[in-house]
Structures are given as C-alpha cells and as structure tokens.
Amino acid sequence: MTDMVTAALPIDLGSGPFAVTTQGLVRRFGSVRALDGLDLQVPEGAVYVLVGPNGAGKSTLIRTLMGLVRYEAGTVNVLGRNPADLGAEVRAGIGYVPEDYRAGYPWMTVGRLLEHQAVYHPSWDAEYARRLRARYEIDPGRRCHTLSKGQSRRVQLVLALAHRPPLLLLDEPTDGLDHVVRDETLSILSEHLADSTTTVVISTHRVYEVEPLVDHVGVLAAGRLLGQLPRHELHGSLLRYWADVPEGWRGPKELGGRVVQRSGAARAIEWTVWGDRDAVTRGLSQAGAAVREVAPLSVDEAAVALLSGKEAS
Amino acid sequence: MTDSTVGRMPAMKDVWIEQLCVVGLAIRREGALAALALALGSLALVAFARIPVLQAIVDEGDVGEFVFNPGEPPWGFFAVLAALLLPLAVWKGERRFGDTPLWSLPVDHRRHALLKVAAGWVWLMAILGTALVWVTLTVLASGGVLGVDEVRLLIIDPAGAAAGTPGATESVSWTTPWWEWATPFTSATAAYLVASTLMLATARPLFWAAGLWVAGAVVLGVGEVWEIGWIERNIELVAWYVGGDSFNRGVQLPTGWTEGWTLLPTMKLWTALSAIWIGVGLVGVLGASRRPRNQ
Amino acid sequence: MKIRLSQADGRPLYVQIMDAVRSGLVRGSLRPEDPLPSVRDLSSSLRVNPRTVSQAYAELERDGVVQVRHGKGTFVAPGVRPEEKERPRLAREVARRALADASRNGLALADLMVALREVEGGGARGDGRKEDGR
After folding, report:
1. SS3 sequence, C112-124?
2. Is the pTM here over 0.90, yes or no?
C-alpha cells in the first residue's frame, strides 16, 4: 500500500529579527509560476537551507534576493532593504555564489579577479582571502576560462566569503566539488561561522552534503514552501513510526498529527507523521497498532518525505 | 536592522578607476594587434619614403611628397571602424543579460553599465590620440607634409560646369582647418556610442548591426534608383562624417575631367553633424542602459 | 578527544557531542582540568555549525561537567567525578539505545538480558564463527 498524501508543515518563524523576508512573492516565466506566493523568513544569524528539486524556484528566489531579477507581486526585504530599489546596497552586504559556475571573465586571471572583487567590497579581508586561496589550492596565475567546474566553484566561494558579508547566498555551493574539496568547504564554512557574524542561505537539492551546518530548513516545491522551521523542531516533531498492525488495518481517523507519508506491507506500517510524539504513539496504539520504533528523520529524509509524499513499500 | 549589518559600499571613484583598468585589460590584445599593424605600416611608409631603392619601386624616380590630410580617408574611416568594433572588446566575457560578473557587484546596474561604456570611450580617445601622434610623427619622419594647402574647384552647378557656363564653378583656396584634426575623435565617439547602444540593448549586437547595415543599403538604393535628392544628400553627409570623401568627385568640364568638390566642409557642418550623431548615440546608450540585465 | 558524529544516529548532534565528552571522561582519556577544543576548532574538524558545539558545551556546563573560563577556553570541571555520575548516566543512555534496538527487532527485555549474558560469557562465540562462515 502506497498513498500520496499532501502535507504542509509550519512556515511561520515568528517575529524575527529576520535578515531576509519575502511575503507573497510571485514571479512568472510565461505561464509558469516560478515563485508562487512565497513567504520566506530567514532569521538573523541562521544557517538556512533551502531544499527542493530542480526547478522548484530556488535559484529564482536567490536571484530575486540579490536584486538580479524582477518580481511581479509581493514584498522582499533583504538586510532591511528592498533589492528591487536598492540593489547595490543589498549586494554590498551579500556574498553570492551563483548557480552559474563560470567565475569572473574568461580572459582574466584568478588573482586579478580577486583584486577586482576587493575593490568592490571595501571590507575585503586580504589576509583571509590569501588563506582561503591556499586552503583551496587556487593558482592566482590561471585564467578563469581554464578552470574546471570545481576550481571555479572554489574561486567563487573565496569571492563570496573574503569580504565577510552579513549575508551569504550560496546557490548549490558544493556543486562540482569532489569529496575532499566538499569536506574542506564544510570545514571552511564552520570556521567562517565561528569567526564572522553572518546569516547563510544555502540552496541545494543535495542537503545531506551541508546538513551538519544547518539550523533552519525551508522545503520548496513549485514556487511554494511546504515547510519552514528550525531544524530542532523538524527533528522533534516530524517522526517516522514503525508499527505492527493486524491484517487489513486501516488506521485511526484522528491521530493527533498530520500524516506526511505512509507505506507498509500487510502487517507492518511505516508512517511519517508531523505531530507530538506521545500523542501520535497513543493514537496508533489505541487504533490497535503496536509501535515498534519511533525515529527522527535527517533533513534530507524529511525533505524527501515532504516532496514525494510517498515511499516504495 | 541597523546600518552596521549592511556591507560597505565601494566609493564611485574606486569603481571608475577599476573599470578603466578592467576595460584596459579586456581590450589589451586587440589594442596590441592594432598597434602592431600601425607600427608596421608606418615603418613601411618611412622606408619607402627614405630608402632610395624602395623609392624607385614606388615612384620610379619621381619623388613625391607625402601629404597627411586628417580630413580625408582613410584616417577618419579607420577611427570609426575601430570605434564600431571596440565595444565587442570592452564587453568581452561579460554576460550582458546574465547574473555575473558585473551585475552581482554592489553598484547600480544602470550606473555600472554607463561607467563601463565611459571607460571604453576614454580608452578609445587615448588610442586615437596615440595613433594620430604616431602617424603625424611618421609623416614628418618620412618627409611628408601635415595638412593641405591647395586650390579646390567648387562645383556650384554640375550641368552648367559641363557646358562651361561662367559661375558654375568657383576656385577656392583651401587650407586644412584646425577642426579637421578633431573630426576622427568626434565621429569615432558617435560610432562608439551607437555600437555600445547595440551592445547594451540587444543580446545579438552583430545581428542587429548587420540588419542596420542592410536597412541603410536599401535606403541608399531607393535614393539612387528614384533619385530622391534629400536621401542622396544625407547619405553623402553621413559618409563624409564617418571619414569618406563623398564631396570629392570627378567632374566633366569642357576642358576634360577634373577633380571637383560639391561642398567644402565647414566647422558649422561638423559641429551640427557631431551634435546630431553624438546626441543619437548618447540617447541610445542612456536608453539601452535602462534595460533590465535579467529577465 | 576523539569525536565521531553520525547522521544515522537519531540523536541531535549536540547530544552526540555531549556524550562523546562524557565517554571520554568514563574511559579516562579526559580528566579534570583538561582543556577541551575551542568551539571554532571542534566545529571546523567536525564540519558542524559552531552553535551546535556551543550548545553542547553550554549544556555540559549546566550539568557541571565542564567550565568555561573566559579568555582561556573550556575545561573539564575540576570536581567532576566520572565514576559517580557520568558512568551510570552513560550506561543508561547505552541501555536505552539497546532497548530501542531490541524493540525494533521485536525482542523483549528478557530476550536481551539472556543474550547479553551469553555473549559476555562466551556462549555466542560459536554462533559468531558460523556467521563469519568459518
């Protein structure tokens, strides 16, 4: 038995303070709604991961926050400003790793590109940039067009981090990085978070790669948030229940929680439920199920559960 | 949110200097090629003018003077050609309708685009100035003359001139005026601005340039076939402005063919054409810079 | 101090860090007055958010296991008695996980107790060999 269940987790993170908010953000491309009334809330100092499949609107959202694309309806506030009006001021406070991995100008050397970025960001920390360059083994003499995808990504990360911006917008930052460099990048980001006061928004469809850094999660699908909440809430309230049940068991009407996903064989079920652990366990037990195990989901598993709403049994 | 949480903005002066540097780097290769061509050309010029063996090949003993007239081709024409091609080098590697590199920097998109165009223009003027000085020195080194001092035959009435009617032609003494030295700079400025407009406004500037070229040729053809006077006249003016010698042509006189002038350019004409074309270019660039850099 | 974190482990990362410190105390690899790695170094080597490490240290401080000395770093508290407090606490945590594992496999506490004694007494060695295919 495999059911498709639509679900929505909370998306209200309270009163802030927020580094980034959008309200009812709408952006269409032709008849396609890339952003469909999006209410984003990124608390100050959070490491917020934006999870979603390709085409969910992640890049469009991040480019909107950068003031790079227009939007049709709603409001956007980034670092206290609307990027549509004050794009330059907003961009001054952002370290941006774009989806497009081509760094700088093809004809420019990497060293010159770093100098170029330093001119535009007066808070550039040249010593930090030098250390990052060394850790990433970036050759400043190389021309940008000779860089591989992974090398280019590393250059982009240095460009984004070295001016210690109050906001980092990282669009698929680990895309193209091999295992060792990805691991190094996580270490670099950990230290960056320890050394600098910054809010981070990471967009990715491979959340397991950055999961240990993350403290807030937004799940995006078809231009809408399916959920937006602190990671510890996700961890505490979105749980997977394994239970043994009598043959032909249908499940209770009222469970005290919202079923996100369910699957199972004839006498065993696996339900993913958003709700209070004790209440759900009680609900299942009273309906005749013997709950064997209750376990939290990783952010990755939670995203998969929310996005697919079903699972092979 | 307090202001301290927002990153610091770059000073516009620093951005301007950086754009001058970056544009200089971007056009470095093209500039080096042009300099090489200029150097080889002038070397040849001096050699043919100064070395007797080579003189003999060109003049067969008749050593003429080399006259450098800034108001005649090919000087103005080369300046305009360079100005039309320069934006391709200035915007090299720039995703003009993308996210990066220019547009994700903390400068207003429109202002940034205009700064880059202006930086390219500064380089254009520097290149033309250097080229002019270089050519001037070459001409002097080869024993040539700067500017012309001659009598020109002004054709007032072409039909009357062929019939030998008195007053149909007029002999005018002509000395290169000072402003003719400036014409390559103004016409190149206008051409650069028009080409920059195409770069900023269109994703495929070469396609649009070709389209404009075809449209111009059609208008020219229509003007010639139906002998529409004002079209012919205006084409002549444009051709002169971009460095052509469109006022200068062969005329039939009772005594035979000779070189005559339909119009002797004046400073007023130059100023008016510059105002029109640079104005068109400026309006174009200012308008095109408003175009959103992303969809 | 060696810490290994696991995403598969259902417990939050900060709890895993706390347990790693406790187990270091029980094993004796950490002793009173020993310095703990800085938040920056530990988060960097574990590739976790520094706040996670801060949270673990703050909870450990509340439990009296560590002391934060301003400007110097975090140290194991001088008065910590691993045998009295940390050992039983860690044992309870391990027992809780073992029970959960048993329950998942449909085993009762009694089954687990029997098996534990057998394994401890060497009774399961034969089974182990069979499983190894020797």
Report:
1. HHHHHHHHHCCCC
2. no
